[in-house]
């Protein structure tokens, strides 16, 4: 999403404005994700649907970029099966988009056959971080901020290090200046983004820890709520937890990816922590920040997973009592070590997934339900899509609460009572505006 906002900003500076449908577009930009097979299939489907539109409007430019473009087999498939795609470029050279767009138009105006002259620009790697790209933000009141790029962890199931490159941290001063600029533009909530935010700053000539950066961002005037994702359990230090504890405007929500509760599966995943170490750190979160919600990621059906491994995962879920979880069925990623391992039969995967999901939902209901009757501070985010008389708000702990109101509330904080729990979200009543945000 953050990359898309930068692409939209670059497109705007080239004179483009967004359209509602591809049928009305001069330029269609498909920005891709490679984290799961479902995401890739969706891209192929969307791109395939552009063929008829392109036939009716041959001057329309079709571009595909992002993580999928970095995968060699994907680039070849796009060129072979989707010849109407005019430009393919990857994650490392996103900032070159206007240059590539210019080259596409020049090639067509120069008399090249538009069906035969295509541009592919994939960089294998980069050490560059390009600052001050224009962005077209999706929301006026909140924004994501990339604090680093890439990943050095090489979990055996994950394609990210291969398509996003090695870890590269931005200078803390540049990040703080961006926060100040956003605050001046009316942004009240920022999300610090990185594949492993705990690793931030280790590659800088003048080291700066993530805890130090987080504290500095929380102290930027006008920034009323700070979120971050994603930490890695093996690197999550007490210093970060103490910073969260000491700054009430840092969200009481820590997304803490477990992936599996089995030590054997964690070893096969190359996660470099044990279930015991994970639970110790989760207990430390509960101790230092009692009001923090802990959410997680869990993969079901990783190669080699047995019923006993699922038992271990359910055991961790019940002991940590996660506030919620993103639970996925393992998706082989071509080029990763896990894709070459012996896969678990689909029917066994589904059984394990169902057990894990049931345990997650039961614990999430308990954690959410325990908040009934409390008064908490919520950020009004959007008009409810089901009933326009309600505004959808988000608590610091990431729980959604719907309240009566109108669009003028969006971007403001309110104290609300949590009246009625609906499993994982609430209906509430606004008491008053909260100018502090906490």
Total beta-strand segments: 17
**Mean pLDDT, as a whole number?**
94
* Inertia-based shape: globular
Structural class: alpha/beta
The end-to-end span amounts to 26 Å
As a percent range, the share of strand residues is 15-25%
Strand order of the largest sheet: 13-14-15-17-16
Cα-atom Rg, whole angstroms? 23 Å
Poorly predicted ranges (pLDDT <50, ≥5 residues)? none
Main beta-sheet strand count, sense and barrel state: 5 strands, mixed, barrel
Helix proportion range: 25-40%
What is the count of helical runs? 14
Q: How would you portray this structure in words?
A:
It contains 14 helices and 17 strands. The protein has 438 residues and is α/β, with parallel strands linked by helices. The strands form five sheets. The protein has a five-stranded mixed beta barrel with strand order 13-14-15-17-16. A four-stranded parallel β-sheet has the order 1-2-3-4, with helices on both faces. The chain has a three-stranded parallel β-sheet with strand order 5-8-9, covered by helices on one side. Helix 13 (307-320) packs parallel to helix 14 (346-369). The longest helix is centred in the C-terminal third of the chain and has 24 residues, at 346-369. The two termini are 26 Å apart.
């Amino acid at each position: 999403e953050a990359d898309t906002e930068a692409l939209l900003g670059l497109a705007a500076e080239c004179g483009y404005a967004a359209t509602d449908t591809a049928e009305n577009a001069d330029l269609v930009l498909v920005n891709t994700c490679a984290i799961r097979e479902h995401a890739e299939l969706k891209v192929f489907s969307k791109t395939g649907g552009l063929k008829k539109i392109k036939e009716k409007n041959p001057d329309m430019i079709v571009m595909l970029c992002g993580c999928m473009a970095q995968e060699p087999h994907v680039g070849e498939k796009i060129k072979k099966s989707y010849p109407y795609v005019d430009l393919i470029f990857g994650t490392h050279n996103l900032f070159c988009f206007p240059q590539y767009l210019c080259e596409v138009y020049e090639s067509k105006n120069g008399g090249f056959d538009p069906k035969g002259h295509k541009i592919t620009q994939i960089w294998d790697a980069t050490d560059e971080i390009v600052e001050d790209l224009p962005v077209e933000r999706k929301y006026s009141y909140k924004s994501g901020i990339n604090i680093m790029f890439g990943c050095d962890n090489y979990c055996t199931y994950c394609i990210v290090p291969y398509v996003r490159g090695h870890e590269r941290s931005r200078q803390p001063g540049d990040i703080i200046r961006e926060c100040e600029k956003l605050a001046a533009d009316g942004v009240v909530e920022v999300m610090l983004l990185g594949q492993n935010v705990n690793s931030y700053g280790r590659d800088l000539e003048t080291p700066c820890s993530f805890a130090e950066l987080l504290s500095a961002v929380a102290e930027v005037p006008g920034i009323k709520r700070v979120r971050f994702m994603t930490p890695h359990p093996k690197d999550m230090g007490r210093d970060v937890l103490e910073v969260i504890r000491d700054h009430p405007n840092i969200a009481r929500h820590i997304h803490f990816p477990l992936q599996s509760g089995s030590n054997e599966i964690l070893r096969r995943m190359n996660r470099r922590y044990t279930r015991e170490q994970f639970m110790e750190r989760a207990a430390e979160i509960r101790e230092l920040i009692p009001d923090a919600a802990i959410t997680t990621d869990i993969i079901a059906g990783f190669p080699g997973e047995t019923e006993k491994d699922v038992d271990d995962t359910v055991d961790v879920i019940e002991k940590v009592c996660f506030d919620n979880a993103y639970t996925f069925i393992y998706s082989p990623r071509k080029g990763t070590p896990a894709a070459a391992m012996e896969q678990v039969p689909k029917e066994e995967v589904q059984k394990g997934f169902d057990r894990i999901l049931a345990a997650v939902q039961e614990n999430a209901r308990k954690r959410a339900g325990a908040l009934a009757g409390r008064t908490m501070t919520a950020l009004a985010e959007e008009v409810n899509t089901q009933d326009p008389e309600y505004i959808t708000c988000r608590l610091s702990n990431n729980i959604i609460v719907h309240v009566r109101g109108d669009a003028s509330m969006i971007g403001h904080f309110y104290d609300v009572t949590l009246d009625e729990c609906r499993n994982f979200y609430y209906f509430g009543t606004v008491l008053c505006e909260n100018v502090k945000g906490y």
